[in-house]
Amino acid sequence: MKALVYEKYGSPDELKLEEVDKPIPKENEVLVKVKAVSLNASDMEFLRGIPIYTRAWGMFKPKYQILGSDIAGIVEAVGEKVDHFKPGDEVFADIFERWGCLAEFVTAPSDKLVLKPATMTFEEVAAVPQAAVVALQALRDKGITERGESSD
Amino acid sequence: MAKLFGAEVTGVDNTGKLELMRSLGADKVIDYQKADFTLNHGEYDLIIDFVAYRSIFDIKQALREKGRYVMVGGALNRIFQTLIFGSLISLFGKKDLGILGHKQNEKDIKYILSLIEEKKIYPAIGKVFPLSEGAEAFSYLINGLAKGKVVVRVQ
Lengths: 152, 155
Fold this sequence. Notes:
The complex is a heterodimer. By secondary structure, chain A is α+β, with helices and mostly antiparallel strands. Chain A has a single domain, classed as Alpha-Beta Complex (Quinone Oxidoreductase, Chain A, domain 1). Chain A has helices spanning 41-48, 122-126, 129-140, 144-147, and strands at residues 2-5, 16-19, 29-38, 70-78, 90-94, 105-109, 114-115. Chain B is α/β, with parallel strands linked by helices. Chain B contains 5 helices and 7 strands. Chain B has a 3-stranded parallel beta sheet with strand order 3-4-5. Chain B has a two-stranded parallel sheet with strand order 1-2. In chain B, strands 6-7 form a two-stranded parallel ribbon. The radius of gyration of chain B is 17 Å and the shape is globular. Classes of the chains: A alpha+beta, B alpha/beta. Chains A and B meet through strand 3, helix 1, helix 2, helix 3 and helix 4 of A and strand 3, strand 4, helix 4, helix 5 and strand 7 of B. Strand 3 of chain A pairs antiparallel with strand 7 (149-153) of chain B, so a sheet runs across the interface.
C-alpha cells in the first residue's frame, strides 16, 4: 500500500510517498481503509521532533514513521475478538499515540473507533476528533462551566 | 463551541484568519501583528493558548482575578515556564495556569456529534490535499496559512 513515510525528524521535505506493507489487525484491532485524515498541530510537532515530549516516541528518529491520527474510513477487516464492527462500516477516530493514518490502510484499536454519522462526509468527520475534543476539554474541564461563570 | 458555553469570545490570530473567526462566532478579533491582547489587563476569564508565543507573566496580567490559562500547544521553553511558574502563580494567587493533555473518549465524541447534528457547531475545513501532496499539506499548515482544518484525502 502507499503511505507518507518519514525516517527522520525535520521539515515536510522528509515526507515521502512510499510503498509499505499493509498492516494486519491484531485480535482487538480493526483494519481501516483510509478515506480522509485531518492534520493537527501534534502531527507537525512529531514531524519536527519538537517539542521534546515527542522524543518519548523515538529519541533520535521517529519510532512510528507514518503520521496522522485523526482518521475517517471504512472497515476492511476486524481482529478475531472484535464483535461490534464489521467490514463495510464507516468509522472515524483519533488514534493519537498510534498514528499511521497517512496511508491507504491503518490498524486501529476497536475501542477508539466510532461509527460515522451518515449525514457527514469522510472529510468533515476526519476534521472533528482531536480539535473538537481539545476545545471541549479546555472549555469544560478547565474553564467556563466548571466555574459556573457563563455569561448567560 | 465557546459561544455555546455562553462565553463572550475574543479570537487572536493573523490578519488572514480574522474573518473566519468572526464567521465562527467570535465577538471580537485581535490581529496579533497590530495589537497586543496581554495589554488588556484583567480582561479575560479564560485564555486557551494553542501557540504559546507569549510569556506566562504577560498572560497572567490579561487574566481577571480567578481567571484561568490553559496551554494546549507550544514551544519547549514556554512549556517549562508554564509548568514551573504556572504552578507557583496558581499556588500563591487566585489565577490558575496549566497545561491540557487531551484525552479521547467516546462520551465526548458523541456529545460533539450531537452538537454537529443540532447544527450548533460544524467542522471548518480549510483545504483538502490528496495523499500524493501530503508534504505540501504539512507546509501549508506549518506556514500558518490554514483557515480551518487541513484534510488529506487518501482513497
